[in-house]
Amino acid sequence: MTHDAEPASVLVHHDGHLGHLVLNRPRALNALTAEMVQSIGRALTEWATDDAVHVVLITGSGERGLCAGGDIVGIHRDAEAGGTQTASFWAAEYPVNALIAGYPKPIVALMDGIVFGGGVGLSAHAAVRLVTERSTIGMPETAIGFVPDVGGTLLLSRAPGELGTHLALTADTMTGPDAIALGFADRFLRSARIPELVAGLATQELQEVLAAVTEPAPPAPLLQQRHWINACYAVDTVEAILGRLDASTEAGAVAAAASIRSNSPTAVKVTLASLRRARLLPSLESVLEQEFRVSQHSLDRPDFREGIRARVIDKDQAPRWNPATLAEVSDAEVEAHFADLGERELGLALAEAAS
Q: Residue limits of the Enoyl-CoA hydratase/isomerase domain (predicted)?
């Protein structure tokens, strides 16, 4: 009895002058593994100096989404066992995010369907970021006791006004047009035109293809709410933000306050601190360094494991956060998430400075 070989988790195609990477775990919504990140890094490194490749395209297999983020079930399993695989995964993933951002050739990322967490890291730093009418994009980490990473705090901190702060603390999502308005994406196309995009990039010039397949984006729903979002989030503590949301008569503010209160108190406070610090950092590499520290320290706390258990594994949607309230999360505890890791530092900013 023979068994078919397991399909590759990343399909690597070279067609005409197009290098095409397809995330290929459709049943897992193309959730990222260390093997996938390594495959992407290898292909991009090879194509960077291959004169036959003029442009790179990143897509996801299936029609549900580009990528739902990191394989958080695997992260939970590793954390429960006291393993080191998650730290190694991030140490491989974050440099690939930086590689995409600084790539010498145009990378086109198709942010179709669901694009969460690690999927944002693979796409929103690319040169050309395309969304469709099916796009749902977000950094919903605070809902699982974690903090936005993969350069997400850079993007969120530089979104207009306080829209990024709102999304990060509530774990809310964006439409495709929202993503364009907030600086996570560039252009809009109808999903029916995806085959035309892929075929065109193999033989035609990039700008010619984009002009043919993209169109003006519909209105961005989030922009209609920025008046109260900017007013409520323009303070530097979560408690003050909640006070302003509670005092608002906007229906969206009531929902936002409820979302923030349902998320991990520690993650919410550390996320706000991460965003405020990221605003002052000079580069993606320096932000990734900070996120790596925060991610490592988050692994040592109980909320990340508990959030994955409640939201993804048992799906009881009743996480038991520890500490359970914002008042119990001290400034010292928040500060501890930014502590230097010593020998475990990522070293990206150092590499950037040396290059």
A: 19-338
